[in-house]
Specification:
The structure is a homodimer.
Chain A (H helix, E strand, L loop, with lengths): L15 H24 L3 H12 L5 H8 L3 H13 L3 E5 L7 E5 L1 H21 L5 H17 L7
Antiparallel strand pairs in A: 1-2
The structure holds a DNA duplex.
DNA sequence: ATAAACTATTTGACCTGTCAAATTGTTTCA
DNA sequence: TGAAACAATTTGACAGGTCAAATAGTTTAT
């Protein structure tokens, strides 16, 4: 139907960033579909729930640090999750600006209900990866992430 | 300032997907900043330019396949890039639905101008990664990506 | 005590990503 | 041929992401 020219020099996917972007896009789609079908949650909601399961009573700013998410987005999302009955917020005694957030029983229960599916998914994703390779993989991810903080000055 | 409870069981970042999402978010921010400062391009524009440098005269659908991008988004983006003078489109002789897209000289020139910075960036990102580790890394990325196509049926 | 500096959160504006339906052109096949 | 099936692209609606400015509360330093 069409004839592409042969790759003249560097292909887009020889950029790590291209590969990772494509991977991420595919993972997002899979995660979104799974969460929606199993629990009617969005990926962001799932992430917040897991983060709060781990860092109990965290504030918006603390969550933002952990999940690397925009505070504006977070503010709105938290609001909607409180309205949906997934999160409860109560004001810090000493600093009235900060709200400590916690999961409601409803959210805890939803989380417990989906967790098996999400863990099964993780295992499927890594099914063919040996422990040694996985270790290398994480190490490389860490290195790339560290380098991605750099903002060039040249 | 606050006391987190100790991680009770599984931390969010023990999910590969969390780690990758965070990495991606950081890479996006870096790439966006670099492209904006060096050439006033968005990440998506850069990606399209590179894709068209590689697959000359590709159509929207072909590009969508390569970069794994939504056709709707692509349609709008292409339109705006044509308006900006970055892309030229001409209709296929045999099928009037398809437009073959190509870079304008302006886009070629912009691309050449930024390429050194983008390549330098890639090298910085991978500076501390040995070739062997990188190979393992890419293999794992491929495996995860393959597994991410799966849509569970349970 | 109080103005200035700082911090947490919210809000507004705007761009990107995703899904589904609509539109337009092409092919198949009775 | 011409209706049905198909394919490429566009459009609409809406969630997610990013940036910057606004708001509200707290701390610091005089």
């Amino acid at each position: 139907m069409n004839t592409h020219d042969a790759p003249s020099y560097r292909t887009p996917s020889s950029f790590v960033t291209f590969r990772l972007a494509r991977l991420q896009s595919s993972l997002n789609a899979q995660g979104t579909a799974l969460l929606k079908s199993k629990a009617g949650l969005s990926l962001v909601e799932w992430r917040l729930i897991q983060t709060l399961r781990m860092f109990k009573n965290a504030s918006l700013t603390e969550i933002a640090d952990h999940v690397q998410m925009d505070k504006g987005q977070l503010s709105r999302k938290i609001k909607s999750m409180v309205e949906k009955g997934l999160l409860s917020a109560n004001t810090d005694k000493h600093d009235q600006r900060v709200q400590h957030l916690a999961l409601t029983p409803k959210a805890e229960q939803l989380s417990a209900q989906i967790m098996p599916f999400m863990e099964a998914r993780q295992q499927r994703l890594l099914a063919d990866v040996s422990p040694e390779d996985l270790e290398v993989f994480y190490r490389v991810v860490d290195k790339i992430e560290a380098a991605s903080k750099y903002r060039g000055v040249e």
